[in-house]
Amino acid sequence: MTASPVELHGAQLAVLIARLEGIARKMTNTLFRTGRSGVLNRARDFSCCIVTANHELIASADALPIHVLIGPDMMSVATKEFHPNLVRGDAFLNNSPYHGCSHAADHTILVPVFDDTETHRFTVLVKAHQADIGNAAPTTYRGDARDMYEEGALIFPSVKFQSGYEDIDDIVRMCRMRIRVPDQWHGDFRAMMGAARIGEREVEAMGRDVGWSVLQAFAEQWLDYSETLMSEAIARLPAAESTGASRHDPMPGTPPEGVEIKARVAIDPTERRIAVDLRENPDCLPCGLNLSEACSRTSALVGIFNSIGGGVPRNAGSFRRVDIQLRENCVTGIPLHPTSCSVATTNIADRVTHAVELAIARVAEGHGQAECGAAQPPSCAVVSGTDPRTGTAFINQLFLGCTVGAGTPWGDAWLTYTHVGNGGMSFIDSVEIDELHHPICVFERRLMPDTEGAGTFIGAQSLKVAFGPVGCDLEVSYVSDGVHNPPMGARGGGTGGAAGQYRIDANGNRHELDGCASVVLGDGEQIVSISAGGGGYGDPRRRETGLVERDVEEGLLSPERARRVYGFCIDDASTASTPAAAHEISGENQEQGGGNV
After folding, report:
1. N or C: at which end does the chain have fewer Cβ atoms within 10 angstroms?
2. Residue 212 to residue 297: CA distance in whole angstroms
3. Angle, nearest 10°, between helix axes 169-178 and 182-210?
């Protein structure tokens, strides 16, 4: 990189990155307050970011990791390749997993930003998960789709959506004809465009305020500084090569034993680099679990950042110190058209992150983390039907709760982590608002005792949610992992609670459900969702006494489990604890230290 003639000191870097991140937050606030679907205005399943004209991620704020780490750069490249003569007032739509997007459900609007000489300086991006994208079935997660054609989504590989700040009506009409509940989609689209145009306006104003040459110098120096911080973090790690593995449950299109995902991690503190090799995994599968290239790279990066601690900016500069090796036609690599990547942001992506974290956890105490729980139980399903109160169709994804957080070397799980790629950044729906907007009743939402991954630092408890339709039929579509392969612990930690789901018919009878399914519930029926817990980190016998007492007092841990797994006896009043006798914490009991005992 050519050295910039403008040299900025640390305070200037701090102020300028805060201003750029502030722009991303303003975009985020705009979309959250104006989005029409519950996915946007309740669950906040979207992200905003800024990339340079050289396609480097420079700033994001409160974004979902799976949305922004890798992908904005690739979509920016694709847009420039397809439209080499960018013009002020253009806007482009990309949701193609073959052209940099995460998966088809994440519509992404890209708006190029120009200076007063019409030189392209930055691109602002707004990525938002959609309630519907025109899939053949009423869900944006087609886990059983054998290819893109069976998935059925409308695919936009950086298609021009606006010219001269005006919509291209042909594209809008096509979407309105194909997408269910078109007014809801169009409202979300307008909200995304508003957020993107606000980002464009604010970056232009910042460039005029501080000077475009200063802003360019900042971008170069901020990325270099971020790379330095990343190299210093890697230098503190031990030199090692380690392989981690995580197994996804069997589903349509997978082998009967499921899909084992491996990550080979090589840490070189001398050269200050980390390499992650994902090439030893199966070929692409005839289902929707395959990762897009953006999700393959991002999920590996998430595993690294989760394992090295905080303080390192997540941008193109820090990414320079990481080498990720992929191959074409691999479930964790680079998919070839028409491979379906419908579920690319969650299930297998989470397993890649787990494999990386477990590999690093094996290196030494204080590194890596346990497995998070698996993604997408029915509590996070896409629901659809006809509302008997209005006679109109509805479709939306629920976010009624999913815990899954893992124990780490530094503390207990983030309880409402939801899934790895989400990073805890989405919101959990209000029961009352979901019932107001949809003809459903939520009967139960509670944490399940004794389902935490035991450890010095514990994984999350499982969450139980029960809901059903009111006065209508309700189609519930989900892709739930973690039933057969619950989250593993690390460095002596225990396994977290397994996922599960079942239907309760109108007579109160229970019917077990598959992990990947689309279920139609009648009036008076319920679906019960159990999210996976999270694995524990470290020996449970080293957990602080006060923390064990607290969990017992709050009803999250039974006194019997406290004695058997953590080695503490708690009296009937739950006011005191003492170490149990040695024979009470035998090796056998420690091996059973997971949430399912």
Report:
1. N
2. 31
3. 140
B/e letters for 569-593, b = 16+ CB within 10 Å, e = fewer, are ebeeeeeebeebeeeebeeebbeeb
At which residue do the structure tokens 């005992």 appear?
597
Q: 491: which 2 tokens?
A: 């460095």
Do 241 and 264 form a contact (C-beta atoms < 8 A)? yes
Q: Which residues pair with 441 in a beta bridge?
A: 468
Asked if 144 and 288 count as a contact pair (C-beta separation under 8 A), the reply is: yes
Give Cβ neighbours of residue 376 (< 8 Å, ≥ 6 apart): 141, 343, 346, 347, 402, 419, 478, 479, 480, 481
What length is written for the chain?
A: 597
Q: What is the pairing mode between strands 510-512 and 57-60?
A: unpaired
CA atoms within 13 A on the CB side of 146: 1
Calpha distance 294→304 (Å, rounded): 16
Q: Largest Cα–Cα distance in the chain?
A: 78
> Can you give the pTM of this predicted structure?
0.94
Q: pLDDT tens for the chain, 597 residues: list them.
A: 445 578 999 999 999 999 999 999 999 999 999 999 999 999 999 999 999 999 999 999 999 999 999 999 999 999 999 999 999 999 999 999 999 999 999 999 999 999 999 999 999 999 999 999 999 999 999 999 999 999 999 999 999 999 999 999 999 999 999 999 999 999 999 999 999 999 999 999 999 999 999 999 999 999 999 999 999 999 999 999 999 999 999 999 999 999 999 999 999 999 999 999 999 999 999 999 999 999 999 999 999 999 998 899 999 999 999 999 999 999 999 999 999 999 999 999 999 999 999 999 999 889 999 999 999 999 999 999 999 999 999 999 999 999 999 999 999 999 999 999 999 999 999 999 999 999 999 999 999 999 999 999 999 999 999 999 999 999 999 999 999 999 999 999 999 999 999 999 999 999 999 999 999 999 999 999 999 999 999 999 999 999 999 999 999 999 999 999 999 887 654 444 444 332 232 222 223 233 322
How far, in Å, CA of 69 to CA of 315, rounded? 7
User: What are the C-alpha distances in Å from 348 to residues 64, 246, 262, 376, 415?
Assistant: 17, 9, 11, 11, 21
Handedness of CA 260, 266, 267, 272 (dihedral sign): negative
Work out the number of other CB atoms within 10 angstroms of the CB of residue 283: 12
Instruction: Name the residue with tokens 């059903």.
Output: 468
How many helices (H) does the chain have, and how many strands (E)? 15, 22
- Rounded to a whole number, what is the distance in angstroms from the first to the last CA of the chain? 56
